[in-house]
Amino acid sequence: MSSSLAGKRICVTGGAGFLGRSVCAKLRAESDGEIFIPRSSEYDLTQAGDVERMFDAACPEVVIHLAAEVGGIGINRKRPGRFCYANLSMGLHLIEESRRRSVEKFVQVGSVCAYPKFCDVPFREEDIWNGYPEETNAPYGVAKRALGVLIESYRAEYGFNGIYLIPVNLYGPGDNFDAETSHVIPALIRQFCHAASNGYKSVQCWGSGNASREFLYVDDAAEALVRATAIHNDSRPINLGTCREIKIADLAALLAELCEYTGEITWDATMPDGQPRRCLDTTRAATLLDWQPRVDLEEGLQRTVSWWRSQRKQPIKEVCTAP
Ligand SMILES: NC(=O)c1ccc[n+]([C@@H]2O[C@H](COP(=O)([O-])OP(=O)(O)OC[C@H]3O[C@@H](n4cnc5c(N)ncnc54)[C@H](OP(=O)(O)O)[C@@H]3O)[C@@H](O)[C@H]2O)c1
User: Fold this and answer.
1) Is 217 marked active-site?
2) Which among 19, 65, 111, 185 is the best mutation to test ligand 1's pocket, defined by most ligand atoms within 8 Å of the CB?
3) Which atom of ligand 1 is nearest to the CA of 47?
4) Ligand 1 atom, smallest distance to 169 CA
5) What's the burial of 229, exposed, middle or buried (CB within 10 Å: 0-12/13-18/19+)?
6) Domain with 124 in it: what CATH number?
7) Could you give the angle at which helices 184-198 and 248-258 cross, rounded to 10 degrees?
8) Mind listing the pLDDT tens digit for each residue in 55-113?
9) Core-most of 29, 47, 279, 315, by most CB within 10 Å?
């Protein structure tokens, strides 16, 4: 058990989500404290009044803020205003209420989407302000950036113990496979599994296939998050990733094989690629958290495909990739 989390009342916003479920499982394994998961149906955390009510009910000593409105390029383009507002306002109210109630530790989760569109690879934490994010996810990315500033300025002015972690794209069993909102890995798995079981000869994917991404297995991200919650106490942001960059076309080939799809893969270059390249420098995570990811991409993808196959099959009609 991690001694700094022992017996603590920990509020995990978004604790019922993809990353949240894994974080809560790790917390339960490492802490005998109480875990409070505010559901959106009961507490709309974009509303200050609901955040106050949630604090009255939970009385947390530690807050891990994972709640967010997130998704792939399609939904980011469709709802830029909502994504910016919801993610900003949730963080804003939660950080302020945590300060007012003298919460011992606040963990804000950022996103690789906050990095500039054109950034030297691998992205270092110092580079986050060296340009505007890629347009399709900028409203979401800028909201995440702003919350990093709030964390830092609250530490400077109030001694608020907020920390800020920047995960790269996550994936794994339990990911969001929704046709409209999913990220690239679940979107491709849906397409290829569906094509394989229906004998399709061709599958068309979004974009050119030339963009690159880096992917972190969800349980590895959760492990880093829980470790940072337990031991990290300054507001320097920390990247969480694997340092392995892969082209979307190569990822698609890998997934097609795992899904036993043998037909042709074509690319619709009229659809956006999103950010041209993504890969994080994780030196800081290794140094400050003594953390390394354990699950390599092939193994993680295999587990994700197996999980998806074990789920009830749903009809699909779409093509949607990229974060
Ligand atoms: N997935 C990725 O690739 C990725 C990469 C980098 C960073 N992140 C960050 O990691 C965190 C978790 O992402 P995820 O993929 O696990 O997301 P997710 O599966 O969509 O879960 C998000 C959770 O947020 C909660 N939520 C949304 N709006 C809310 C509201 N208005 N009030 C209260 N709760 C609300 C939802 O709670 P209910 O279930 O109760 O509705 C949901 O469980 C986010 O901060 C995201 O920005 C994710």
Assistant:
1) no
2) 19
3) 31
4) 3
5) buried
6) 3.40.50.720
7) 40
8) 999 999 999 999 999 998 899 999 999 999 999 999 999 999 999 999 999 999 999 99
9) 279
